[in-house]
Structure formats: structure tokens, C-alpha cells
Amino acid sequence: MKRNLLVTTADENYIDAAKQFFASAYFNSGWQGDYMLLSCGINEKKLQWFKDRGIFVKKCEPLAPVGYKNRWAASNINKIYLFQEEMKHWGKVLFFDADTIIRASLDGLLRVKSIVSTYPSLNRTKIREHIVK
């Protein structure tokens, strides 16, 4: 059986948030799968913290143009790397933004058989499912 993967993305501005994310997943959810950081422009010395804890680090080439300024950090565009062929190595891939704090088990999400995303609307979160055929 393939292992599952928990992923977030970060650049230099979100290193501490990514550390907090992985710590909350480990201590609060009891996650038994693998962990991965999609790294965007983080130097090797700072990446060592993740590697020392067994977190896979995938260095991503920035996909946003130089000087990109928008509502989201340029590293967030790197979510597109989740659809690369190498991600098929894992059974399920769960992605969360680095500023997420995990407070309970993620096991229920592993039963979902489609691509699921959340988005804020009227100060509450709605779930939207896109069936993959």
C-alpha cells in the first residue's frame, strides 16, 4: 500500500509558518504518512531543519514572474507542482497552506476520493468537490 503525503509550500517569508504547520500535524493529528515542503528560494542552511526531521524538500523553480505582487505570495503559485508525475508515488496527497494549524486527525480526509478544495465565503468555509474521472 502506498504511503500518504502531507505537503505545504514556503518561501523565505513562510519558513516559520511551515515549521509550525509540520509540528502541528505531527503532534496534533498523529500523521503517519510522509511530509514534504515545496521550497521556493530558501537557502540550504534553513532547509536543513526540515531535512533533519525527515521532511522531504522539493526545491521548486519560481513560477511567478520576477517582481510578482498580488494578493497571494509568489510561492503559492508553486502548488502546481502537486500535479507532477512524481506525486503519483504516494497514495493520497494532502496540501495545506503553511499558515494552517492542524488541531485534530486528518484520517477522515484520506477517505475522500476526489479533489477537494476550500474557499472562504461570507466568513465561513465551504467545501467544493471536483470529481476526477
In CATH's first tier, which class applies? Alpha Beta
Mean pLDDT: 81
Report the CATH topology name. Spore Coat Polysaccharide Biosynthesis Protein SpsA, Chain A
SSE order, one letter for each helix or strand: EHEHEEEE
Q: CATH superfamily assignment?
A: Spore Coat Polysaccharide Biosynthesis Protein SpsA, Chain A
> Structural class, judged by helices and strands?
alpha/beta
First CA to last CA: what distance? 22 Å
Shape: globular
Task: Tell how many strands the DSSP assignment holds.
Answer: 6
Q: How many domains, as an integer?
A: 1
Low-pLDDT segments, ≥5 res? 121-133
Number of helices: 2
Strand content: 15-25%
CATH architecture verdict: Alpha-Beta Complex
Proportion of helical residues:
10-25%
Taking all Cα atoms into account, the compactness measure Rg is 15 Å
User: What's the story with the biggest beta sheet?
Assistant: 4 strands, parallel
| Strand order, largest beta sheet | 3-2-1-4
Give the secondary structure arrangement, pairings included.
Elements: E1 5-10, H1 15-29, E2 34-39, H2 44-52, E3 56-59, E4 93-95, E5 115-121, E6 124-130
Parallel strand pairs: 1-2, 1-4, 2-3
Antiparallel strand pairs: 5-6
Folded structure, characterized:
The protein is of the alpha/beta class and 133 residues long. The chain has a single domain, classed as Spore Coat Polysaccharide Biosynthesis Protein SpsA, Chain A. The chain contains two helices and six strands; from the N terminus they run βαβαββββ. It has helices at residues 15-29, 44-52, and strands spanning 5-10, 34-39, 56-59, 93-95, 115-121, 124-130. The strands form two sheets. A four-stranded parallel sheet has the order 3-2-1-4, covered by helices on one side. The longest helix is centred in the first third of the chain and has 15 residues, at 15-29. Residues 121-133 have low confidence and may be disordered.
